[in-house]
């Protein structure tokens, strides 16, 4: 049975960000993730988590300036100081939010982003995160939505994990991105399960609800997670077609309901 989390950057966006925590809990979620918390005081977010009885399971290290086209800075040469500062801020938020995982984004090749720079930055960040009890996550993102993104394949993520020289860098398995870029979802999970520490789901195409109207066989994926004893979180990271609560039917078997 998957342990379901809600991505609050995408779900419950009928509400202001800080009100999404209570909305998710009301529907039965016990855990949440989001992309970036930095526009909000960490203590305010911690209060919303505690007030709702929710666990924070993942968020992202700051990615640079989205409006100027940044999609992470971990692999961008010349921005190492900014990267280190972003890691320190993220670890500070993670401490307050009691969050055990941080996704580190790479950046785009048009900005010179490259795997060697990313590996060196990860080698610096991973021991620091480990000391703080936080795992660093690498998520391959598909080239349709993120053209030029440097960490675009499982093979690249595996190379980075090895090159980081640390046992504190893991794979974030986003079924949506993997289906968009390569397919072979079940075999990929089977092959790399020991280093997969977080799963995200959405339908393909459209990145909407992970239900039976789209092309991924989620029942088979969930069955595999059970078979292999995956004990991490599975987060709904999708764009609801309409109201979030109207599209929660896919999660009903696990106690999530419209409320
Ligand atoms: O899949 C995604 O888009 C996210 O998990 C992410 O961190 C990058 O936007
Ligand atoms: Mg994702």
Distance between the termini: 22 Å
Given helix and strand content, the structural type is alpha/beta
Number of helices: 8
* Ligand inventory: ligand LCNOYBR7, magnesium ion
Please, how many domains?
A: 1
**How many E strands?**
8
- The CATH architecture designation is Alpha-Beta Barrel
Low-pLDDT segments: none
Strand order of the largest sheet: 1-2-3-4-5-6-7-8
Write down the overall geometry.
globular
Determine Rg (CA atoms, Å): 17 Å
Integer average pLDDT: 98
* CATH fold title: TIM Barrel
User: How do the helices and strands follow one another from N- to C-terminus?
Assistant: EHEHEHEHEHEHHEHE
Question: Biggest sheet, open or closed, and with what strands and sense?
Answer: 8 strands, parallel, barrel
Question: Would you identify the CATH H-level superfamily?
Answer: Divalent-metal-dependent TIM barrel enzymes
Please give the CATH class.
Alpha Beta
Percent of residues in helical segments? Answer: 25-40%
What is the percentage of strand-forming residues?
Answer: 5-15%
Provide the fold topology.
Blueprint: E1 3-7, H1 20-26, E2 31-33, H2 42-52, E3 55-60, H3 80-97, E4 101-103, H4 115-131, E5 135-138, H5 154-164, E6 169-174, H6 175-181, H7 185-192, E7 196-201, H8 218-228, E8 233-236
Parallel strand pairs: 1-2, 1-8, 2-3, 3-4, 4-5, 5-6, 6-7, 7-8
Helix pairs in contact: 1-2, 3-4, 4-5, 7-8
The structure holds the ligand O=C(O)[C@@H](O)C(=O)CO and magnesium ion.
Domain Xylose isomerase-like TIM barrel: 21-250
Protein name: TIM barrel protein
Keywords: Isomerase
